[in-house]
Amino acid sequence: MDVPILYEDNHLLLVQKPVNIPVQEDQSGDKDLLTYLKEDIKYRYQKPGNVYLGLVHRLDRPVGGTMVFAKTSKVASRLSDQVRRNAMERTYLAVVNGKPGQASNRLVDYLYKNRQKNKVSIISEHHKEGKKAVLDYSVSASKDGLSLVSVQLQTGRPHQIRVQLAGLGTPIWGIKNMVNNIVK
What is the pTM for the complete model shown? Predict the structure, then answer.
């Protein structure tokens, strides 16, 4: 697994998560990023025993991007508290099919996760199992039926960005196609 380290000190580890890698162990049995990084730290620093690495936030398996890990429990607690209080700014870029009706907007939806199917859908706010999902977006550029959208999460629900953007009528464009188009 090739995982570029963007920054590292005694407290933090920032890496570039590859696409299609789970952040933590799941039922697939595939090698996950957290386990890989713990093994890497153990090897690079010749640490005996278990290595502590705190998972502060997650990215969905199909998504690549910068991830922050805590190298001590104290830092993990502080960063997790920032995420909980929405004091940590989380900005994502997505290429979507089409162009949202407004150049920027706040989306507020209620999401339901079917755990058996691992599928998330938008439901009525009155549904007892719905969880409020809020994000702000702005369109950075549009060309050839695609738009580059900057997204700031206000909540952190599973599959939130993909589901809310699809609900807007602008689903995220395929990862393989996106890479090929950017390279051209």
Answer: 0.79
Q: Write out the DSSP string of 24-78.
A: S--TT----HHHHHHHHHHHHTT--SPPP-EE-----TT--EEEEEESSHHHHHH
Calpha distance 89→92 (Å, rounded): 10
| Residue-level pLDDT at 108 | 98
Please report how many Cα atoms fall inside a 13 Å half-sphere around the Cα of residue 58, on the Cβ side: 17
Q: Do the beta carbons of residue 147 and residue 96 sit within 8 Å?
A: yes
Contacts of 140 (CB under 8 A, 6+ apart): 93, 147, 148, 149, 150
Q: Which residue has the tokens 């595939």?
A: 30
Find tokens 């909540």 and name the residue: 155
- pLDDT mean for each 10 residues of the chain (184 residues): 95 95 92 96 94 92 92 96 86 94 97 90 94 96 96 90 94 57 33
Question: Among residues 9, 30, 60, 136, which one is catalytic?
Answer: 60
Quote the CA–CA distance of 131 and 128 in Å, as a whole number: 9
pLDDT at res. 48: 92
Q: Which amino acid is at 49?
A: G
Q: Is residue 2 annotated as a catalytic residue, yes or no? A: no
